[in-house]
What we know:
The chain has helices at about 40-50, 95-100, 160-165, 170-180, 200-205, 220-230, 240-250, 270-275, 300-305, 320-330, 350-360, and strands at about 1-10, 15-20, 30-40, 55-60, 65-70, 80-85, 125, 130, 130-135, 145, 150-155, 190, 210-215, 235, 255-260, 275-285, 310, 340-345, 365-370. By secondary structure, it is an alpha/beta fold. Strands 3, 5, 6, 10, 11, 18 and 19 form a 7-stranded mixed sheet that branches. The protein is globular, with a radius of gyration of 20 Å. The protein starts with a strand and ends with a strand. The structure holds copper (II) ion.
Amino acid sequence: xxxxxxxxxxxxxxxxxxxxxxxxxxxxxxxxxxxxxxxxxxxxxxxxxxxxxxxxxxxxxxxxxxxxxxxxxxxxxxxxxxxxxxxxxxxxxxxxxxxxxxxxxxxxxxxxxxxxxxxxxxxxxxxxxxxxxxxxxxxxxxxxxxxxxxxxxxxxxxxxxxxxxxxxxxxxxxxxxxxxxxxxxxxxxxxxxxxxxxxxxxxxxxxxxxxxxxxxxxxxxxxxxxxxxxxxxxxxxxxxxxxxxxxxxxxxxxxxxxxxxxxxxxxxxxxxxxxxxxxxxxxxxxxxxxxxxxxxxxxxxxxxxxxxxxxxxxxxxxxxxxxxxxxxxxxxxxxxxxxxxxxxxxxxxxxxxxxxxxxxxxxxxxxxxxx
Length: 371
Ligand code: CU
């Protein structure tokens, strides 16, 4: 069939809206009519080259849609089912999935190539070339074919144009607080960078019982939004936050510091460690450029003498098959704000405008809504 998709033909080029050829689903795959896709910062990393991609690539990995057709052997999904994609697949069978770490599913190893999990080929083609898919999903498209391992079935009354955000940013941010940082009641928590991930780290810290949540972002609009999501204080820079946290904590500093910047920067990790209390923990959730292997500038002595911890977190260190339904349940009860995360919606053709708005700091999350 033919459908429309946003393709990146080279690094540092705009997204190009193309009519593409889409093959039917093979064994273990499903054809999904997309309803919406969040415009996550990670797709921008493909454009800048911070995240190496198999170009040409269809972007988008924070999507939700309606199953239209299932390939042979798919027994638990049928046409009409509503699904959210996990940006990392979860097979349910590998050691990581079996251990309750679906975010580290072995199938994630194939993400860099962005081809179909089952056979390493492509169902998406344009101009006689095979296209790869961001996170093996390619949600910047009106239709896509993905492996069943990427699908999480949700109730049909869930508004997919909002719930698409659970496929990446929401779980990543919320889990960074609740699982990776292990925020406990009474904690002082700093969240560095208030975008689609940081806003959810603030919500997660609040739900986990943090006493103080200091949201750090240079953009005033984002600091204001952070207060709506549950922050108790804001600062426009790490330096400003240092004095504030010192004062608020009587010098003991923050129990947890969660890094959710647009692009990670090793040079600020020293400040993050300085914000952290004895036995405190810095969680690195944001993506650092692939080539950044030195220059983090942290006091390694602090790791020993103050037992500070520096840990990484992928997909909120959570289990999308359990956490997506859990968060939807909290949203139904009015305890989790999904609506406030979406600043503006765009059609597929508005993708470059949407990413410019993100670069300009205008959006917590922009969402492509297909109709
Ligand atoms: Cu993402």
